From TrEMBL:
Protein name (record): Mannose-1-phosphate guanylyltransferase
Organism of derivation: Denitrovibrio acetiphilus (strain DSM 12809 / NBRC 114555 / N2460)
Domain Nucleotidyl transferase: 3-265
Single GO biological process annotation from the record: GDP-mannose biosynthetic process
Keywords for this protein: Nucleotidyltransferase, Transferase
Amino acid sequence: MLNIVLCGGAGKRLWPLSAGDTPKQFIKFGKEESLYIKTIRRNMPLCDKTSVLTNQKYSDQVDKQLTAAKLSADIILESSCKGTASSIIIACLMYPETIILATPSDHEINNDEAYQDSVKRARDFAEKGSVVVFGIESEKPEDRFGYIQADSENVIAFHEKPDSETALKYMSDGYLINSGILCFNSDVMLCELIKYLPDQVAIARKVIENIRSGRATHRLCGRFMGEMTTYSIDSSVLEKSDKLKCVKGIKGWRDVGTYESIYEHRSPKVNANLSLNIGESFGCADFVDSEGCMVLNREQDVVVCGLDDVVVVEYGGKILIAKKGTDIEKALKKLDG
């Protein structure tokens, strides 16, 4: 089985940590490894080979962290981000007759045994010709994710990101969070892609025909890549396919997409104050008359005084101060404007 690590996202909701050439999957807290490297390590016991699909502007980060971790992988470089559908098309064309486990690079999963059991069940389905999605049993109503409505392993429907009230209903009805992890036979998936996105597959063939390959790095043709249209694999293919199966059972899963999710995942208890260093940093943090606050800093000392439920981030010469749960992307639009 081949692990395709999808590593092209920007993660704007974690500004200023996730910005420019260092999106969230490459961030390291203290001496921990990044989510990107953790993803590769998590799947090594299950997969014979790893291939990282990323944007060419992240190539240095991808290679540097692989080398530091003493890991090896093929690296496929896209000239532009064209969504999950194009990534899956490229993977299927490059690796025919292969069982592929496609995994986002920005997830935290803290139960390896449950994860491995789920992937093995998914691989069994994939070997029999199914395209497998992974559903997560939600611990609380989540409006940041799409949902899967399933009857045992059979997928009934996909549902878009809900509002808060609908998310509560989805949770009570037993709907599963769509993790974005997929397992499939590349030839089976390619047939589905040809059925629903024939024009995109045709362009992708030109991309592959004009690929520039080194020892372990494959640079996709920017000219033809630019002709591809951005599609989500969920809405363009999976929602229409009759080959779907759903596997659940992954425990300890987190999509590290917001500062609130980082706090929830790492805080030792409710309303505790949390301090996290970024990389090999030397900034300190202190809290006075404050509860439920989080500081992420690299160089500068930070003191939070008389505030509750506040996030303070100091990184790369930029500072964010926000209430937990704030939509940071709205603020970024003002900065960009």
